[in-house]
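Many introductory courses stop at the sequence. We go one step further.
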Amino acid sequence: DSYGSYKLHITNTSPYPQLIIQLYGEDEKKMYRENVLEEDGTIVWKHLPPRKYVIKAIGDINRNGQWDTGNFLAKQQPEPVVYMGASIEVREGWSFEEDWIVSFR
């Protein structure tokens, strides 16, 4: 009961067929969870320590499962990143469910 859980329903409206969804502490110093989605889906994160988190999505253009910084000499931009609105707060014994329509506009 000293942990919480979070369920996130992802709808991908971006031009990128693969997304990397990452859960970070509010200060973004530590990543707690990471999931790779190749289509719309649901992510369930259980046993999360109580605190505030931020969620970000990466458009995994080359489908290698990691964020790529780009290449200046090859004139390649970094893979796009978008954050899900405001931070979320997980509390002890708490469970929350939310929808996120991912778009990189």
